[in-house]
Known about the structure:
Blueprint: E1 5-6, E2 10-15, E3 20-30, E4 33-42, E5 52-57, E6 66-78, H1 91-137, H2 142-187, E7 193-204, E8 208-218, E9 221-232, E10 235-246, E11 252-260, H3 264-267, H4 285-289, E12 291-292, E13 321-323, E14 328-330, E15 337-347, E16 349-354, E17 361-369, E18 379-385, E19 388-395, E20 403-426, E21 433-446, E22 456-463, E23 472-476, E24 487-488, E25 493-500, E26 505-517, E27 520-521
Parallel strand pairs: 1-4, 2-11, 9-18, 12-27, 16-22
Antiparallel strand pairs: 2-3, 3-8, 4-7, 5-8, 6-7, 9-10, 10-15, 11-13, 11-14, 16-17, 17-20, 18-19, 20-21, 21-26, 22-25, 23-26, 24-25
Amino acid sequence: MYEETLPLPVTAVTCLEDRAQVERTAEVELAAGVHRLRLGPVTALAVDRSLHARLLGADGAETGRGRVLDVRLVRSWEPPAPLAPGPDDSALRRRVHDLERAYAAESRRQDRLEARLALLAQLAADLLREIGEGAGVGELEQARWSRELDRVDAERESYGEQLRASRQRATELMAAQGNAELALARAEQEPAELRAFVELSVECAEPGRFLARVGHLTACALWRPAYRAELVGGALRLETEAVVWQRTGEDWSDVALTLSTARSASAGEPPALAEDRLVLRERSAQEKKTVEVELREQVISDAGPLEPGLPGVDDGGEVRVLRAAEPVSVPSDGRAHRVPVSAFETAARSEFAAAPELSELVTEVVSFRNASGHALLAGPVDLVRGSGFTGRGTLEFTAAGAPVRLSFGSSDGLRVVREADERREGAGLGDRRTLLTRTVRLHLSRFSAPGEDAEQVVTVRERIPVSEVQAVEVRLRKDRCSPPPDELDADGVVRWEVPLPPGGRRTVTLVYEVSATAKVAGL
């Protein structure tokens, strides 16, 4: 049998992508010998197979004076603890609660009245004793004695009547409470509560004070990264936060919180194996004369796309661990709670960027380097400027020290309109090559407020195809581009730096040619 149930509070939590690793510590005083301890209560969502325990010294270090023989979780259904009715409880439950409080108040009033009557009885006895002693020695104070006796009798009669009324009121309240509880029992049935305790068997070589440390996994807890970016002049402050949800049935109070991207559920599953058969065959005469090509879209990015719906934690394929700087408290309410993780301030460079093929809006993009000392996981960003909250963006996965590009929304005064046409030549009976000429015109305009006189530089990016086969050539006609592009990178992205005065308009022309041999099909 267990002498008592010892509390086992949560002291540290490692929050994973879809669950949490919980550590608990209890201080126990043990004599030499074998002991069976009952610790808890703990959350009923604890995973049994993940339960483990250690017996440490009072300073938290390993000791050879004690060892754990067995540890297990024991669950049982128990009636719920009585609590005050909440806003969602029924009127009948509220009436039962009010009657209980009224009966308790009436009982306390009876106790006070009985104490007062006992005091008055003692006062009457003292007064009668004084009368007897005074009459014996010949000191007669009939007027005072009569006045005091009348006052005591009047008070005893008054308080006695109040006590009888209080007892009558208590009887009525008890009857009403019984009827209300009977109606509540017939109308509502309170479900039993599943509670869990840790049973720990330990053996101690000598008496002393020990720390019992218990760890286990639990469900109904997860976290996701979130950020807050504040742009002030040429500096940007980025705050990293963890949004934590938990509904494990117990609150986490002042715990050391660790945030990990480890996926414990999938770590033990081996990858599925499938056959990949390669077959060689001779090409037909028609296939030797023809080169099949097709245009495809290729996303230029460093990190893969996230899953639809609630995204997972994009960690770049490597387990990342973040720690909260201070102990935190997360109640078990299932709501989102933001926990500060880190913050840094660094120099930032802003530019107005336009990608007319994707959108006619001109967006302000802020470029800076990740100076947080850890990788920035993919997540939403609250954008803040000098005027306050301006919107919400998305931050992609960024390694420590890597450059970051963050969009701060579109500019209301800048617009771009895109026009494209193409001309095809060749592909006749006597032509050996097909020439496809594409012309793209980008019309930029700026709407300025009165008093603005500074130029605004807009970075315009347009793309051209990139060929992967020798039979197809792509050539940028810089002589026909107006103005000539400032840069053409290996991914086929053409860039211009276009200055726009207040109320100004500019047109950017891009011309490129796609040349293919007569063997090419599908262009």
